């Protein structure tokens, strides 16, 4: 790679150089640097200025090319976190994502890629028809949230808490703050009631959001950290939940052992609970069985698995084309034990908006989905912008987050 290309890409925030002369990024935004100048400009204005101008023009040109080719990760300003860096699976390690200007955190666990058998056998107790046929799936490596997203983190986005704290500390906006504003300011609209419904807030999972809201949160988190986050696919979620097991639950087939691993209707006292109170699955993920059901990216299609019979599905995703139904996984505090099985598929329903007094209904809140939350993943290899648009970030109907806020 040429020196000029390194100047344009510079993803880790280090000071770039050209033939030993330091080049300083003076102004960066979510779409990359617009101005580059030499530190030597003041001391050697006549000798350096023409060269610096040429570098600036060429850097802008290269950035435009990189944008077209879909290397957004190289242009985003990255929040430094050495443990979050990895280029190959062997380098992946657990890390904690800190939401800048706050004390809110998200613990991430590395999930190595591989193949597994998705779905449930005909003999599994509690099985539903939509869980078959069983088929092989290939999954690429990713990090996954150790816990479900809590109100502590979600309300930073909901109520602009990071912006408030930054202003109180008299700190100027940095490039990440400016990029995050696109997905944060006035988004979402304020809820019309207490969305915890008295079940608890600090350390408890966030609930009642639409899939669209969860997706927008991920876009904000991506801009806020410089690392690409999204919801898992249904296949990725089940792969992580199973954690190498083939039984009904990640701890075996006996639902009587569920008390040690998850919250369901029988042990929850009809409410969600603080994250991480039960035992984790073999890969160190908590509350994969119960507490709150979790959004994934997929549309719910009852016979979706049939197309993969006898094949190996590679990174499958049922791209949403309608608002309902969409898939939730893991079961919840309000479900019977069989709904908490690794292969069990839940789905959204218009009744989740029944108490919403707004006309039209909110794009941000499912006021009757007290059992639904989410957790995030971060793929080891970030897809290109074209791939995101065509697959990972694609969903219909399309909502205008600004003009269509409600």
How many domains make up the 3D coordinates? Answer: 2
Q: State the end-to-end distance.
A: 47 Å
The first-level CATH class of the largest domain is given as Alpha Beta
Characterize the overall form: globular
CATH topology of the largest domain, by name, is paralog of FGE (formylglycine-generating enzyme)
Order of neighbouring strands in the sheet with most strands = 4-5-8-14
Radius of gyration: 23 Å
- Give the number of DSSP strands: 14
The largest pleated sheet is described as: 4 strands, antiparallel
CATH superfamily of the largest domain: paralog of FGE (formylglycine-generating enzyme)
Please give the share of residues in helix.
10-25%
Beta fraction:
15-25%
Number of helices: 8
Low-confidence runs? 1-71
Question: Average pLDDT value?
Answer: 86
SSE string, helices as H and strands as E: HEEEHEEEEEHHHHHEEEEEEH
Query: What structural class do the secondary elements suggest?
Result: alpha+beta
CATH architecture type of the largest domain? Alpha-Beta Complex
């Amino acid at each position: 790679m040429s020196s000029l290309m390194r100047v344009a890409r510079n993803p880790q925030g280090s000071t770039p150089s050209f033939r030993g002369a330091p080049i300083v990024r003076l102004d960066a935004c979510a779409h990359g640097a617009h101005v580059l100048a030499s530190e030597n400009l003041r001391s050697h204005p006549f000798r350096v200025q023409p060269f610096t101008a040429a570098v600036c023009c060429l850097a802008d040109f290269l950035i435009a090319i990189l944008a077209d080719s879909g290397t957004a990760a190289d242009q985003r300003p990255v929040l430094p976190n050495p443990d979050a860096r990895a280029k190959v699976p062997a380098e992946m390690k657990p890390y904690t994502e800190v939401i800048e200007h706050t004390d809110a955190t998200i613990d991430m666990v590395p999930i190595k890629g591989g193949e597994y058998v998705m779905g449930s056998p005909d003999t599994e107790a509690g099985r539903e028809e939509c869980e078959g046929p069983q088929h092989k799936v290939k999954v690429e490596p990713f990090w996954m949230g150790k816990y479900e997203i809590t109100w502590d983190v979600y309300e930073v986005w909901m109520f602009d808490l990071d912006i408030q704290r930054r202003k109180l500390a008299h700190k100027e906006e940095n490039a990440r703050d400016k990029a995050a504003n696109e997905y944060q300011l006035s988004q979402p609209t304020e809820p019309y009631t207490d969305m915890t419904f008295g079940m608890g807030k600090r350390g408890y999972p966030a609930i009642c959001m639409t899939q669209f809201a969860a997706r927008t949160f991920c876009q904000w988190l991506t801009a806020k950290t410089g690392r690409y986050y999204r919801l898992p696919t249904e296949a990725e979620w089940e792969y992580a939940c199973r954690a190498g097991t083939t039984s009904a639950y990640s701890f075996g087939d006996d639902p009587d052992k569920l008390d040690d691993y998850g919250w369901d209707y029988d042990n929850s006292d009809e409410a969600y609970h603080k994250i991480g109170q039960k035992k984790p699955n073999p890969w160190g993920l908590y509350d994969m069985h119960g507490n709150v059901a979790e959004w994934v990216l997929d549309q719910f299609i009852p016979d979706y698995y049939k197309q993969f019979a006898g094949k190996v599905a590679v990174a499958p995703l049922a791209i949403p084309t309608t608002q309902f139904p969409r898939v939730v996984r893991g079961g919840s505090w309000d479900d019977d034990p069989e709904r908490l099985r690794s292969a069990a598929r839940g789905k959204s329903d218009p009744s989740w908006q029944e108490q919403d007094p707004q006309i039209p209904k909110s794009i941000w809140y499912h006021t009757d989905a007290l059992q639904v939350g989410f957790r995030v993943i971060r793929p080891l290899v970030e897809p290109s912008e074209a791939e995101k648009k065509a697959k990972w970030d694609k969903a219909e109907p399309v909502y205008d987050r600004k003009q269509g806020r409600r």
